[in-house]
User: Fold this.
Amino acid sequence: MMQERERKLIAALCLLPPGPVPCDRLERLLWPACGRAEVRLLLNRLADDGDVLLLCNVSGDRLVMLAPDPDRTASLRRRAFGPLPLAQAPVRAADRHDPPDPAADMVSVACLAADERPVLARGGGLAKRTAEQWSKRLTLTEEAGRNAARGPRVPPPLPGNVAAALDLAIRSGLLDIRNGTIVPDGPAWVRWLTKTDAALRREVYYLWLAAFAPVHPLARHAAWLLPDVPEGAWVDPEETERMWRRRLPMPEPDSEQTGWLDDLAPLREAGWIEFGETADGRPAFRPVRPMSGEGAVPAAGGRTGGPLYVQPDFELLLPASGSYALHGLLTGFAEWRESGRMNAYRLTERSVKRALERGWTARLMLDVLERPAAGRVPEEVVRGLRDWERALSAIRAEPAVLVTVPSEEAARALEASAAAGPLVGPDNRLGPGVYVLLEKEWEAFRRAAASLGFMTPDVPGGGGRRPAGAEAVPAEADGDVRIAAARAWLGADGEAPRDGAAVSEMRPGLFPSPLSAAGCRPAPRWRTEELYPGLQRVPSVWMKKRFSGHPATKLDMLRLAMEWGCRVEAGLAARRRETDGIAFLVTELAEEAGTWRIGGVAEDGAAIRLKLEELDGLRLLVPGISGGAT
Assistant:
């Protein structure tokens, strides 16, 4: 029985809106399938496993929410509902051309940020011109991006596709905001490049649900289980709804809770699912692209996928189904031209020069082009890359910092220092007390100088970069877009924080997360005296065996069972065998016509109606203590 009650508890949790909800609401939702004490014990166990977070708000009220870990959320839903039922009849897909690819859009936005590193306006906004330029590079349309954020959320005044892709990139760690500038994160890129495309799509899809979860509980449940649908298989929504109604710990939905397929429409517009229908007109849906691949590290030498078509006119064609890693690499040294079924790039003198300045070489570019190419790289392209490298690399320039030292004595001290000596020596000395350092050497020099007692600026000036603390240049008034940081609580290890543990912040995004728990703190475990107040004053015999005593004693036991939310086991006077009896949850205790009427619910859901004199003996089934009904 424990497994069945745990499944019902998880099902009830999954049906609640995302974010923290009062524990007493969950208890009412489960009543009378489980008692209050059983619900709280199960919550303790789920919190210990990291599946849920137990929280307290500023008033001390108890709250519970699913842990903001997508893999755990999906696993919980699988345990509660099982896999989505598949359609058995043949299904015809609705006509759809060029579905968007949010995972590719995330890579595009990260590459654009690497090119431009846009500086935010004073209010934390993105320049209007930049937002419009980015919008043209994405596969998701602006209108579809707006529809994805419909409902109670108010999207920022960015183009819808830019807002959605930027939000996902920030949540994933692919982008970050440092000193008022949007910059890509190198370690996150490495993590992306070592996963399969299907695993990346699955990860981005879970991020999407965390930001834009469907409103209807069944649509939300079906969306979380969609990545487990086998490639090419269709889901039967009618059978899904029947299964949902059978397994929920609540009555069947009323007439207002229909049409949950409409809540999946934004997922279709975003390119995650496609709709179809059977020969007899029944609806069905399935994932557009496979998301069931495992995130294994590729073999040595990397994986860039393919095929990539390299044309003699320096045009590069990559199908929309091509590798995300290759999509990102091509952006590093080729100019984007078009997105759709075929992503088009072109090698130009400008794009190659930009790549050479970042450390690329013609050999590295050719390596990227040769491995996934459908055929050999044309000789014209090979010769062109080498010629550009020869012409553009004749003179090289790197960002540098000019350092001046106030006195000759200080210069000698720096050059004599073991830490600073390699940085300020004859090789980079321009004159007495004047040195030139590569920008990447600045922090090392700064630490060495500080150890000798020298004060250095926080950030070197020049190079077109804004010193730390300086105000950002405001964007156009009509293009000022504010970036709001959504906050949520979770432990540093991604699990439920323990009592007194430090609480960290979830990575912010443009849209408030439905898993936000601002104003809450970790809750302590449910204590025995909270579950069973007055337990110490209760005779232990009441929980060991059926106890037959005075009617007043039986009433006390029944009142305790109602207060604690636990079951009782009762022997019936009409039955002679000691083993005969019934266990039930007490829901009603009323006096009428000189006797007491008892109402309850048996473990199989049947209603119980008894009178006090019909009870031959009683035993309290206290979960976790008496050994019964746990």
Summary: The mean pLDDT is 78. The first strand starts at residue 21 and ends at 22.
